[in-house]
Amino acid sequence: MAGRIGLAHLPTPLQRSPRLAEALGVDLYIKRDDMTGGAEAGNKIRKLEFLLAAALSEGADTLITCGGIQSNHARATALLGASLGLRSVLVLRAADPAAGAPLAGNVLLDRMAGAEIRLITMEQYQERAAILVAVAEEIRAAGGKPYIIPEGGSNGLGALGYVRAMEEVRRQLDLGLAGGKPFDVIVHACGSGGTAAGLALGASRYEIAPEVRTMIVCNDAPTFERTITGIIDEARALEPSLGAPAALRVDERSRGPAYAVASPEQRCRIVEAARLGGLVLDPVYTGKAFAGLWDMAQQGELTGKRVLFLHTGGLPGLLVQADSFSDALTAASVG
Ligand SMILES: *Cc1c(COP(=O)(O)O)cnc(C)c1O
């Protein structure tokens, strides 16, 4: 069994949102993984419980990871690393690295945690695996002990965090929460695939839902299907008792204009979710996924179904885009 350290505040709530359920016309529940912690909260902690256990057991003193400039994963790594006495080097993708990283949102938290940020171009980011290895070499040459965490913490080991999350939901259902019955579908935002892989394996193993609907926020479905299948295979190699995954459907309707850019309609849905349910979503991941869920409901695809939406966090990504929300605040059709 892979080692794990306790970093998240668990179990996270499993809630029904009556006003949102009514607005969408579906039997909707929300797994509040935005509440896995304080400023470090979100879905990445569950993966880091396994990844940082491995880093510590290897005697690492420096974590190296990568992501977009406002990466939630990089922020969680920097904060949790600091709590464990580990240094972090964050290789972040920026449109214009020469302009530097504005001190806002996740970047502020990264810097507060003492992380070193290295900006690279979108083009260089294609070669991120090689760049992370080169940074590790550099740290080793200086006498340090690096541990590389892939983008999003998304490998087989990190995905085990979401297998355990499904075990947690099983215990909640057994206690009678959410009516005590399994769901028909789990809906969640996907950016690097590790959450999807763990959910699909855990949903099947713990009989949480027969289907995982993976709302991608960038790239395309075939790319993610390959990536997620690879992560599932890695996770099963680490935990051979895992059986076949639940049916995984990668859905492109949430992508929006670009990574980290939401459409006006998606921003409206974000405002409406806050007004109807007090549910705060973000324009990079959860808001796009929830707008997709809303669309599925309107298309009648969820009629009569019990739906579990996984809230994966991302609040700093909303606050850093505050300026783009003034139109949505007026255009939203509720409140
Ligand atoms: C990283 C992230 C996701 C996507 O999870 P992956 O495992 O990378 O696919 C979803 N929501 C939020 C808020 C995230 O930070």
From TrEMBL:
<dbReference type="InterPro" id="IPR036052">
    <property type="entry name" value="TrpB-like_PALP_sf"/>
</dbReference>
<comment type="similarity">
    <text>Belongs to the ACC deaminase/D-cysteine desulfhydrase family.</text>
</comment>
<feature type="domain" description="Tryptophan synthase beta chain-like PALP">
    <location>
        <begin position="8"/>
        <end position="313"/>
    </location>
</feature>
<feature type="modified residue" description="N6-(pyridoxal phosphate)lysine">
    <location>
        <position position="44"/>
    </location>
</feature>
<dbReference type="Pfam" id="PF00291">
    <property type="entry name" value="PALP"/>
</dbReference>
<keyword id="KW-0378">Hydrolase</keyword>
<dbReference type="InterPro" id="IPR001926">
    <property type="entry name" value="TrpB-like_PALP"/>
</dbReference>
<feature type="active site" description="Nucleophile">
    <location>
        <position position="71"/>
    </location>
</feature>
<protein>
    <submittedName>
        <fullName>1-aminocyclopropane-1-carboxylate deaminase</fullName>
        <ecNumber>3.5.99.7</ecNumber>
    </submittedName>
</protein>
<keyword id="KW-0663">Pyridoxal phosphate</keyword>
<dbReference type="GO" id="GO:0008660">
    <property type="term" value="F:1-aminocyclopropane-1-carboxylate deaminase activity"/>
</dbReference>
<dbReference type="InterPro" id="IPR005966">
    <property type="entry name" value="D-Cys_desShydrase"/>
</dbReference>
<dbReference type="InterPro" id="IPR027278">
    <property type="entry name" value="ACCD_DCysDesulf"/>
</dbReference>
<dbReference type="GO" id="GO:0019148">
    <property type="term" value="F:D-cysteine desulfhydrase activity"/>
</dbReference>
